[in-house]
Amino acid sequence: MLGEDPRGLPSAYETACLHHFNGRSDALELLGEQNEFVAPAGGERSTRIVGPRRAIAVKGTRVSHQDQVHRASRSNPPTDDGETMFCDTSHPMSRLILVNARILTLASKLPGPRRGSAMRDLGVIERGYVVMNEGRIEVVGSGDAPTFNGDEIDVEGRVVMPAFTDCHTHACHAGERFAEAAMRLAGTPYLDILAAGGGIMSTVRSVREASHDELVEGIRARLRQMRTTGTAHVEIKSGYGLDSATEFKMLDAIEEVGRHDLGVISPTFLGAHAIDGDEAAYTARVTDEMLPAVVARYGKIACDVYCEKSAWPRAAARRLLERAKALGCPLRAHVDQFNELGFLDDALELGARTVDHLEASSDAAIARVAKSAAIAVLLPGCGLTLDLRFANGRALIDQGAAVTIATNLNPGSSPMSSMPLIIALAARFYRMTHEEAIIAACWNSACALGIERRTGSIEAGKQADLIVLPSNDERALAYEWGAAVPISTYIGGNLLDCSDIWC
User: Which residues, other chains included, contact 305 with Cβ-Cβ below 8 Å and sequence gap of 6+?
Assistant: First the structure.
């Protein structure tokens, strides 16, 4: 068998192909028996199921347990510091035990994002078990699992690890930019396309024309794709409206999706994504009118700004973040993507939670990031798509910066949604070790969104957000270029099935 594992397990590539086949409705019938489970009597050992279990697809959020899908209750829980988040609190499946697993706990002895050598400690349990109950991780242990009243699944030595958190996306958008891709292939620089009314502004026109329902369905479709590759929690920005009505339409769509999604949907206001019309008038309107209105409606929502030539100038970007800080918003900043304009220093001075991109950052700027409390969010999909320029991830980590990675999912500069692919890109272009890339994609990403107390590691009491890899070796994530997609994804203890993503 091609790529056969020494233990007889299929390779990540082969399992990915099987997973794609399982997306067809006729294949789901073959999996039906795996979903049948009769709860044991009190005190009895549960029936062992060999191999990761797949769920029968249900329209909308994919959840399966004893043929029941629980309706999501509406909630709007904040992070630990009061920041607005959207997610549901649907009832999870009852106790479930994953046994015979290679567990990457990512358990951290210290709070906050990992730095330096701490980014290479995966907290591995070579052979152990994870007990999930009522949406939480109940027990994590090594060796054989004690007797529990629940459903036991033998993962046969495969890797069990935290689900991914994608901390930088533009997943709320409409339309396509195929013509722009052809222009880039012909040699037209991205900033020239933006200055000519393309790029971001092209998507702005499409989003303004889209209905609320169309935006909602677009987000849901992209989330289903992301779930097939193990992403549980997602940050989603506005920023393709650039007027009050459309920015609110985007944030309303993000909120609606979040209220019915099992994962955390972290909204970010990005009215400062580009300039629409007169620069002085537009930047003043976003700062003095749109931002306060957004905070009044959504609470302490994160505020982001794109400081770049043909986008927001440094002085206006600083004034926006000053106003956002005064309103209690967590601060984020797109900085140094194409040009080093000095805004990185402003963002760090104002206490930005994240500084994103950094492709054009100098050695001196990297040193300043490393000494700061900010998390560097690196986006390798942009470099791969646009110009093969990448941030110096190796230098950032070696100098002690807190580093995370994300897809930057958007229709122009990074049309990709797979965190396993991003991990492989980080290993290749940032020279990250597989351990560093995994911690960046799970724990540090959760820290970037302020949700690390509930997710990002496998520890008792945390939300049961786990993935089961097709391999017994996590190095496949860094070296098989997006093929090591999970064969099972659990969010809040619920087993998801996104196999019919095209339906």
Answer: 270, 272, 312, 317, 320, 321, 332, 333, 334
Decide if pLDDT at 4 tops 70. no
Angstrom distance (rounded) from CA 483 to CA 490: 19
Which residue's structure tokens are 């798509």? 385
Could you tell me which of 61, 461, 86, 134 has the C-alpha nearest to residue 264? Answer: 86
Whether the Cβ atoms of residue 65 and residue 94 lie closer than 8 Å to each other:
yes
Q: Report strand pairing: 96-104 vs 124-133.
A: antiparallel
Please report how the helices 291-298 and 314-326 are oriented relative to each other, as an axis angle in degrees rounded to 10.
30
Nearest by Cα to 271 from 256, 258, 288: 288
CATH code of 12-72+93-163+454-496, in short, is 2.30.40.10
Cα–Cα dist 332/354, whole Å: 5
Distance CA 136, CA 465 (A): 8
How many Å from the N-terminal Cα to the C-terminal Cα in the chain? Answer: 32
**CB atoms closer than 10 angstroms to residue 191:** 17
Helix/strand/coil (H/E/C) assignment for every residue in 299-323: CCCEEEEEECCCCECHHHHHHHHHH
Per-residue pLDDT reduced to its tens digit, 177-197: 787 877 877 888 877 877 777
Residue where the block lists tokens 């290679």? 102
pLDDT digits (tens, 9 = 90+) for 69-121: 222 222 345 565 667 666 554 555 579 999 999 999 999 888 999 999 999 99
Residue 65 is given by DSSP the state: B
Distance CA 459, CA 108 (A): 9
Contact criterion met (CB below 8 Å) for 491 and 61: no
Strand 48-50 to strand 151-154: parallel, antiparallel, or no bridges (unpaired)? Answer: parallel
pTM beyond 0.85: the answer is no
How far is the C-alpha of 274 from the C-alpha of 202, rounded, in Å? Answer: 11
Distances from the Cα of 390 to the Cαs of 229, 281, 431, in angstroms? 23, 34, 11
Secondary structure class of 199 (helix, strand, coil): coil
C-alpha triplet 63, 65, 68: angle, nearest 5°: 80
What are the E-state strand segments in 284-427? 302-305, 332-335, 354-357, 375-378, 402-405
Where along the chain do its domains lie? 12-72+93-163+454-496
Q: Which amino acid is at 61?
A: T
- Strand-strand pairing, 164-166 and 231-237: parallel
Largest CA distance in the chain: 72
**Looking at the predicted structure, is the pLDDT value of residue 46 above 70?**
no
Per residue in 263-294, is it b (16+ CB within 10 Å) or e — as a string? bbbbbbbbbbbbbbeeeeebbebbbeebbeeb
Asked whether the beta carbons of 360 and 380 are under 8 A apart, the reply is: no
pLDDT in tens, 298-357: 999 999 999 999 899 999 999 999 999 999 999 999 999 999 999 999 999 999 999 999
